[in-house]
Specification:
The chain folds into 2 domains: 137 residues, Aspartate Aminotransferase, domain 2 (3-Layer(aba) Sandwich), CATH 3.40.640; 93 residues, Alpha-Beta Complex (Aspartate Aminotransferase, domain 1). The protein is 35% helix and 14% strand. The protein is globular and about 70 Å long. It has 294 residues and is an alpha/beta fold. α2 runs parallel beside α3 and α7 runs parallel beside α10. Bound molecules: pyridoxal-5'-phosphate (PLP). Keywords: Aminotransferase, Pyridoxal phosphate, Transferase. Its cofactor is pyridoxal 5'-phosphate. It comes from Vreelandella olivaria. This is Adenosylmethionine-8-amino-7-oxononanoate aminotransferase. Pfam families: Aminotran_3.
Length: 294
């Protein structure tokens, strides 16, 4: 596999092995994990042009040039590396990655567990770039949090590789609760609500509000402890210069009736899509109050 620095893909052995090997939380397991290739995390922001992502893409290209013969797939969280620090990149990077995978005959896998179902403002992060991965992984938003469920989608080309007359072709991999009918039913109902109640509209409103409350706040952006403020869809992060600057923020927020859980030096919110305008203000006010406390 080829994965990216700052990546987070889960906590089981195979998944830990494709998480950021340096900053990840899995150092305890490092000696057990299979070794994969890693490319630098993208650095260009969401609104970067094709030209401005050139640097990030050439880093990806150079790993592929050297190792494509031993790489099955490039795996990434498109547009938003979530647990690795809410690192946002441009659709041009995602489109460029697709082109590189085609050029080097390497499959492209999108882990949209965090980004899927509207989190970045479109149904899938892939939609911003107009690209289709060969394999796509979905979970979190699939059931709106009501029941644990995940799905792995594949193109016909990938799917058909597992079809044939011999057991060697079959994907001999079936956990006890695979295809759980109740979880599937909950997912279908969640998708129905998402479409019929125009969740993408709700997400657009949340996004505008997060931009207004956080991005447009001059004092917050100018605060000496703040390195960057980013908003993408229903995701907002205040990046501090150090984790130290966020020490105690969890308790501070809880005392004010808000649950915030920073990761490292990133204070973020990924609100539920049913969050009202007043509730969202309460959250962003607490995030700002932390930096404005004397
Ligand atoms: C949460 C998350 C996972 C982990 O999913 P599990 O169901 O806990 O294995 C994987 N990838 C991304 C991008 C995530 O945000």
């Amino acid at each position: 596999m080829l994965s990216l620095m700052k990546a987070y893909h889960g906590d089981t052995t195979g998944c830990m092995a494709v998480c950021d090997p340096e900053e990840g939380m899995h150092s305890l397991f490092a000696s057990l994990l299979p070794q994969h290739h890693f490319a630098p995390a993208p650095t260009a922001p969401f609104d970067a042009t094709a030209e401005q992502v050139e640097h990030d893409l050439s880093a990806l290209r150079s790993v592929l040039e050297r190792h494509h013969h031993e790489i099955a797939a490039l795996l990434m969280e498109p547009l938003l590396q979530a647990a690795g620090g809410l690192n946002m990149t441009s659709p041009a990077y995602v489109a460029g990655a697709r082109a590189l995978c085609d050029e080097f005959n390497v499959l492209l896998i999108f882990d949209e567990v965090a980004t899927g179902f509207g989190r970045t403002g479109k149904l899938f992060a892939a939609d911003h770039a107009g690209v289709t991965p060969d394999i796509m992984v979905l979970s979190k938003g699939l059931t709106g949090g009501y029941l644990g469920h995940a799905a792995t989608l594949a193109t016909d080309r990938v799917h058909n590789a597992f079809i044939g007359d011999t057991p060697h072709h079959a994907f001999m991999h079936g956990p006890t609760f695979m295809g759980n009918p109740l979880a599937c039913r909950v997912a279908l109902e969640s998708l129905r609500v998402f479409e019929e109640e125009n969740y993408l509209g709700k997400i657009a409103k949340l996004s505008q509000q997060l931009k207004r409350e956080l991005l447009d706040d001059q004092a917050l952006n100018a605060h000496p402890a703040v390195a960057d403020v980013r908003v993408l869809g229903a995701t907002a992060v205040i990046e501090a210069h150090s984790a130290e600057a966020l020490k105690g923020v969890g308790g501070f927020a809880r005392e004010r009736g808000v649950w915030l859980r920073p990761i490292g030096r990133w204070l973020y919110t990924m609100p539920a899509y049913i969050t009202s305008e007043a509730e969202m203000v309460k959250v962003t006010d607490v995030m700002k109050a932390w930096f404005n406390r004397s």
